[in-house]
Automatic annotation (TrEMBL):
Catalysed conversion reaction: ATP + protein L-histidine = ADP + protein N-phospho-L-histidine
Protein name stated in the entry: histidine kinase
Gene Ontology cellular component list: membrane
Domain spans labelled Signal transduction histidine kinase subgroup 3 dimerisation and phosphoacceptor: 197-262
All copies of domain Histidine kinase/HSP90-like ATPase, residue ranges: 313-405
Lineage, uppermost ranks: Bacteria, Bacillati, Actinomycetota, Actinomycetes, Streptosporangiales
MF terms in GO: ATP binding; phosphorelay sensor kinase activity; protein dimerization activity
Coiled-coil blocks: none
Membrane-crossing residue ranges in chain numbering: 75-96, 117-139, 145-162
EC number: 2.7.13.3
Cited Pfam families: DUF7134, HATPase_c, HisKA_3
Alphabetical UniProt keywords: ATP-binding, Kinase, Membrane, Nucleotide-binding, Phosphoprotein, Transferase, Transmembrane, Transmembrane helix, Two-component regulatory system
Xref: PANTHER family: NITRATE/NITRITE SENSOR PROTEIN NARX-RELATED, NITRATE_NITRITE SENSOR PROTEIN NARQ
Boundaries of every DUF7134 domain copy: 12-169
Amino acid sequence: MSPRIRGLRTFRAWLAARPQSADAVLALALLAVGLPELFLGDRSAVEARLFTAPDARQGVLVAAVTSALVLRQRFPLTTLWIVLAGECLLSLWGYVPSVPDSVAYMIAVYSVAAHRALAHSALGGVVALVGFNALLLAFPMRMTLLEYLTNNALVVGVWVLGRNLRMRRAYFTELEDRAARLERARGSDARAARIEERSRIARELHDVVAHHVSVMTVQAGAARRIIDRDPGGAREAMSTIEEVGRTALSEMRRIVGVLRTERDGQAARGELAPQPGLGDLGELLDHVRETGLSVQLWIEGEARTPSPGVDVAAFRLIQEALTNTLKHAGPQARAWVRLRYTAEDLTVEIEDDGRGTATIVADNGDKPGHGLVGMYERVALYGGELRIGPRVGGGFGVRARFPLSA
């Protein structure tokens, strides 16, 4: 960007931040253009006969009328009265109308309509129209009916322009406020969804950790009872306690930072059943196939046993993705589930060839669904990566990678 353009933009930004300074620049520009034309321009014989010759008094009065524009945004009615009074004095003393005071009158009419409410702007419009007609009647030169109507139409048109611009500014302000409210509501919904999903994750992990602690308690009691008569069995029980304790500790580290909300007793009693995992994937796919959706499962690599938390998260991820497929993919859609095991991680892919992308957008707009928020929360909880989006060739895809190491 050239220094000239950069300087021009800086000057425009400075004027936008200081409206009175911008109006002062406008008034000075009118005077710089109009006063030389008033005193140095050629006058016709009719003007010389009917109007008083320009002098210092007219110059001062024209400058005062034009300078009143500095107040037009803060005090538009006052500005209109000042300009109208100046025009009346110029007409009373017989001076010919000049460019600065004529343009200042139109700007004052526009300012009343653009910067005041309807009652005040209507009052200002009536005053401006009545004063303008009084000036036309006192004008020493004759004018045709068409010229008279055209001049009145000009004043009315300037007032209507100001009202329209005021309504347009109010409309855009309302749009900005509405967008800000929607953004705040979207943020609140997302936070509520995260809190709700974290609470559900916390309950699931609580069941996993509680199971490990129960196993440790049973093994410790058995080791205490047999330590004297069967030291080998006691050592085996202690090894089991160590292994289970490490697993439970790993799950507890993952749960740090997950916020839990209160739940009622009935909900707690309903969640005492063991959490499902990838071992229950066949039953899940059978249920999905019963709905009419064709689902295929591929397993690549040597299957390894993930941690209980990853097992639950991967199962819930597949369950949520297939639920979205049932809801949004449409009839005749097909789905694929792939589990890819490596030495370091487990990759879960769920894809379909339906119309899921457009339907999800149409249903939810820009607001992410709680299910998608839950997917991100589950995968992020275990240090994984998640990608959700449309497939090449149509359909929708979900791909998550879970590290198998703690």
